[in-house]
Amino acid sequence: MTDHDFITGLPKAELHLHIEGSLEPELMFALAQRNKVAIPYASIEEVRAAYSFSRLQDFLDIYYAGANVLQKQEDFRDLAVAYFDRAAADGVVHAEIMFDPQTHTDRGIAFGTVIEGLLAGMADANARYGMTSKLILCFLRHLDEDAAFVTLAAAEPWLDRIDAVGLDSSELGHPPEKFARVFAAARAKGLRLVAHAGEEGPPDYVLQALDLLEIDRLDHGNRSLEDPVLTARLARTGMTLTVCPLSNLKLCVVDDMANHPIDRMIKAGLRATINSDDPAYFGGYIADNYRAAASARGLDRGDLVLLARNSFLGSFLPDDAVAAHLARLDAYVEASR
Ligand code: ADE
Ligand code: ZN
C-alpha cells in the first residue's frame, strides 16, 4: 500500500474544523445565486485567487464575508453534508466540528436556523457513513464577553446537542482572560471547553487558557513550544493539541512546511493531532494535512498511527467508543503490513 493510500484509509477523528471554513467556492457561488446574495467575486478562480494571507486577520476578513451566503437552514445542512462527504473520503470516522453562531446571528439569521441545519447534516453523515459527530459552539473573541453570554443563552434549547464551547477569531489583543466568566458558566452547564491559543498569541495566552478557562483541549498551541516549562506541563497533563499544518502555512504561523513543529511536538511528548481547520481556504482536507506534515517532516507510519490514535484519545467520545476506534485502528495497521 502506498503512503498516500495508507494515510487516506487510516481511521481518524477530526477535532479542529470550522464548518464555515469548509465552504468551497463552488458552493459559495451556488448559495449566492440561490439566495440572491451579492459576492465580490466574478468567478470561482477569482475567489481562489483571493485566498492569499499573510496573517490570521487577512483570512478572517474573507471568511466572515464568505459566510454571508449562508441564509437558510438547508444552506447549513448542505454545507455540513459537503464537509462530511470530504471527511468520509479521507478516513474520518468521527468529527467534532466548530461553528460560529455570532457570525450568523449578527446578520439576522436565527440561532435555530444555523444549528438545525448543521444537525440535519450530522444526521445525514451518520446515516450514510456511520460517521459520528459532535458540535462545538465557538465564541468570537473580537466581540465582548456579554455577547458570548447572549449566545450561550440562545443555545439553551439545544444544549443537549452541543458538546463543548470554544474560542476563535482574532487572537492578538483578545486574551482568554476576557472570557473567563462565560467559560465558567458553560462548564457549569456540563459543556466541555476548548480554546484557540498560541496560534498567533504568546505562550502566556496558552497559560491563561489552562488556568483561567480550564480548557479540556487546546486548539493549535504551536507557540507553547517557546516555553519549555509550559511544554512540559502540557505533556505531563496529557493535553490534546489540535494542530493544523496547512492552516499554519497559509496563515504564516510557520514560514515553510519544512519548519513545521509537528515532529518536535511528538518528541516533546505532546498529545498532538492533525486537523484541517478551514480546508476550503487552506488548500486541503485532513488527509492532505497528514500528507503535507509527513512529507515535510519525515514522519513514518508509526508517527502517523500515533497521530490518529491521539485523535481518538483527545476526542470527547465516551471511553468505550474510544476503545472501539483504537481497536479498529490497530486492525487497520495490522492489515496494511
Ligand atoms: N476561525 C476560523 N479559523 C480560525 C483560526 N485558524 N484561528 C482563529 N479563528 C478561526
Ligand atoms: Zn481554528
List keywords for this structure.
17 helices, TIM Barrel, binds zinc ion, 51% helix, 337 residues
Helix/strand layout:
Elements: H1 3-9, E1 12-18, H2 25-35, H3 44-49, H4 56-66, H5 73-89, E2 92-99, H6 101-105, H7 111-129, E3 132-140, H8 145-154, E4 164-168, H9 180-188, E5 192-197, H10 203-211, E6 217-220, H11 228-236, E7 240-243, H12 245-250, H13 262-267, E8 271-274, H14 279-282, H15 286-297, H16 301-313, H17 319-335
Parallel strand pairs: 1-2, 2-3, 3-4, 4-5, 5-6, 6-7, 7-8
The chain binds adenine and zinc ion.
Adenine binds near residues 56, 196 and 277.
Can you put this structure into words, describing what you see?
The protein has 337 residues and is of the alpha/beta class. The chain has a single domain, classed as Metal-dependent hydrolases (TIM Barrel), CATH 3.20.20. 51% of the residues lie in helices and 14% in strands. It contains 17 helices and eight strands. Helix 8 links the parallel strand 3 and strand 4. The longest helix is centred in the middle third of the chain and has 19 residues. The protein starts with a helix and ends with a helix. The site of zinc ion has 6 residues, from strand 1. The site of zinc ion (ZN) has 6 residues, from strand 1.
